[in-house]
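User: Can you help me understand a structure? I only have the sequence.
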Amino acid sequence: MSADLPQPDHARNMRVIAYCDQGGRPDGVQIMVHRGHAYIGHMFSKGFSVLDVRDPKRPRAVNYLAAPPGTWNIHLQTHDDLLLVINAKDMFAAAEFADEKAYAFTASGTPADAGRTCPRCSTASPITSL
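Assistant: Let's start by predicting it. Here is the structure, written out as tokens:
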């Protein structure tokens, strides 16, 4: 295996033959390979990527399609000539989670309200430090 490829932590009867950063979107959560292309759903990039994998040793990103506002594409499926992409509700941006709070631990170990909204739930008041 090439020295510049990531080394797997746990592998049995497998070897890494190539690497692709998915067009600068390394947050792939589901992959479907169909007819020489890989379709990869993204949680944080909020969309899905298409990679040309006809040459497995040289995968390359060929397209990215953004999810509609307030959604992410973490589930997708291929069948025949169809690609089904689920525009699921972005749970990190969902209003019902906006009331989550961050807590700081005091010296006694008791949680104290840090007075800030959880950063994954709101970009308006992110926590920078506790």
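Now, to help you interpret it: DSSP finds no helices and eight strands in the chain. Residues 91-130 form one domain. Let me know which part you'd like to focus on.
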